[in-house]
Amino acid sequence: MASESESNGHHHAGDEARAENSGAGCRHGGDDGGGTPRTTPEIRYTKLFINGRFVDAASGKTFETRDPRTGDVIARVAEGDKEDVDLAVKAAREAFDHGEWPRMSGSERGKVMAKYAEVVERHADELAALESLDAGKPLAAAECVGILRYFAGAADKIHGETLKMSRQLQGYTLREPLGVAGLIIPWNFPTMMFFLKVSPALAAGCTIVVKPAEQTPLSALFLAHLSKQAGVPDGVINVVTGFGPTAGAAISSHMDVDVVAFTGSTEVGRLIMEASAKSNLKPVALELGGKSPFIVFDDADLDKAVELAIGGNFFNKGEACVAGSRVFVQEGIYDRFEQKLADTMKSWVVGDPFDPRVNQGPQVDKAQYERVLGYIEQGKAEGATVLTGGNPCGKKGYYIEPTIFTNVKDDMVIAREEIFGPVMCLMKFKTVEEAIERANGTRYGLAAGLVTRDIDVANRMARSIRAGVVWVNCYFAMDRSCPFGGRKMSGFGKDDSMHALDKFLAVKSVVTPVHGSPWF
């Protein structure tokens, strides 16, 4: 990064000689000014959680989880494998087939879930600190309790239908819990993803085996502990930490797992579908990758459009499946947008997520850090122009400057592939028709955003873009009441809203003859 005198007065700390083309500040916690970084949390839970107890892996193996701020080891965590998954599934099966959870009324399950939410809320600061430590996320109050409360309220609202039959029959449907749910969650939002999957599964009456990402295992283990405190019966929630090709594969192919819900890469989603096909044909719900378009029209509020573009790309250091990383700006506003964007990024601060002044923490681990830097070099090699960033940031840890490319063509690798890091592709367009064609010119279909004052343009774009959600004059406008999920190679199935229950429920038809009824 450039020195202070060369970078328009940015605030930096430490040796930034590795970067030369910055538009954002690089600062690590403990440097000059503005508040004291908070202390890191104590690590108390590192074993597998099976049938209400923390236990070592059957093999005795452990693996390291590292602090992305420094690359240092935080703790060693039990490395679960097929044998451990078998034990967890056995516990979940016993809890489903013979335990109280699916036999409780919906209101009773909802009360336990509400208690769980209360316990989690009391530990919100500790959970937030765990995520900052393990995932490099900027420290913030936990908002995930609302998801759990929403589905606690939904537990007694699951019902079937009375059917109007065509002859002398009475018919109705039941919505029954599928059984044991295997939940495989990613590393970018560990606590949120835990509750996005666990909450509807619990409300439906399923029992659960969770496999958190190996990069971020700590919050799931802590949440398992809190579930025990809240009175969730033993065997209902089990957590097996470990690696995807072993523990994750064992869940996906397990003959006694009734459904798998997964959030992660498209490549791994394919493997999970294949494992289901080769085992018991269990239903699968997949929330996969994205390369979402963010489209700014000439009539847009410039300040708002720039604010949304920055948030849509660099929130959570770009580690978001819905990141609006393909930014299309109409030619009449393009030059002003580009200048405003570059100017605004000068105040962006990269650094220790425990520092409240920081906008962007480190990438989750060394592999992801190197992957993102590889894409940045690919963009440079393909002829795209670096407007801001483009370099590593700081002397240690996995920090990357927020990078904006201009002169990007649709067929460039950086415009086609999901980078999952702080990289924006800025492109120009002329007409609504062109915007629609280019927005849909991707194998993904997770999300899209657009900024315009014209309701006719907004309606046309919203109906024309092939994506699971379209945000108009907003971005990342997610809510527990709003269905979220993709199309095309972004997967299928919904998180959030009452639709999220569908993947954990089976519809059963019940038909009986009716004799002597006075009406049909």
From TrEMBL:
Keywords: NAD, Oxidoreductase. CDD domains: ALDH_F1-2_Ald2-like. Residues 54-510 form the Aldehyde dehydrogenase domain. Gene3D superfamilies: Aldehyde Dehydrogenase, Chain A, domain 1, Aldehyde Dehydrogenase, Chain A, domain 2. It catalyses: octanal + NADP(+) + H2O = octanoate + NADPH + 2 H(+). InterPro entries: Ald_DH/histidinol_DH, Ald_DH_C, Ald_DH_CS_CYS, Ald_DH_CS_GLU, Ald_DH_N, Aldehyde_DH_dom. Residues 7-19 have a biased composition (Basic and acidic residues). The active site is at 287. Residues 1-41 are annotated as: Disordered. SUPFAM superfamilies: ALDH-like. The keyword NAD applies. GO terms for molecular function: aldehyde dehydrogenase [NAD(P)+] activity. Homotetramer. PANTHER family: ALDEHYDE DEHYDROGENASE-RELATED. Belongs to the aldehyde dehydrogenase family. This is Aldehyde dehydrogenase 1. It comes from Oryza barthii.
